[in-house]
């Protein structure tokens, strides 16, 4: 079950400049910076009420974010929703005909298990499912 809007992911070329811009815009510094080696991306998170803004910058030419920005301008990259049970949601979405980009959830930024829904099956929007990782969760 989808429980809330977890975050908006924004693709940026220059993470430092974007962090400064959003720090000024939001009137607060980010609460977390993180490198996700498996995705070749650096992230910065801002808390905004009950949701978050995630800035993403690719760290290699093979990064999905670097490739994305080679074809599109900076801006909204994905919409992420918190789910209670990511594996159950993945199965439900498959049954409903959605195309998932992951066979299994993987570790993402901000202590989450994540899975992405292909934009072609979600009206052109890259949708991320997020489940918080607890001490008992296994990948």
How would you describe what is shown here?
Keywords: Isomerase, Metal-binding. With 139 residues, the chain is of the alpha+beta class. It has one domain: 2,3-Dihydroxybiphenyl 1,2-Dioxygenase, domain 1 (Roll). It has helices at 15-26, 64-71, 86-95, and strands at 2-11, 32-36, 41-48, 51-58, 75-83, 106-108, 112-117, 127-132. It is globular and about 45 Å long.
Tertiary shape: globular
Please report the number of helical segments.
3
What is the average per-residue confidence, as pLDDT, rounded to a whole number?
94
How much helix is in the residues?
A: 10-25%
Q: Fill in the CATH topology.
A: 2,3-Dihydroxybiphenyl 1,2-Dioxygenase, domain 1
GO molecular function: metal ion binding; methylmalonyl-CoA epimerase activity
Protein name: Methylmalonyl-CoA epimerase
Organism: Hymenobacter cellulosilyticus
Keywords: Isomerase, Metal-binding
Task: Offer a quick outline of the entry.
One of its GO terms (biological process) is L-methylmalonyl-CoA metabolic process. The chain has helices at residues 15-26, 64-71, 86-95, and strands spanning 2-11, 32-36, 41-48, 51-58, 75-83, 106-108, 112-117, 127-132. It has 139 residues and is an alpha+beta fold.
Indicate the topology.
Layout: E1 2-11, H1 15-26, E2 32-36, E3 41-48, E4 51-58, H2 64-71, E5 75-83, H3 86-95, E6 106-108, E7 112-117, E8 127-132
Parallel strand pairs: 1-4, 5-8
Antiparallel strand pairs: 1-5, 2-3, 3-4, 6-7, 7-8
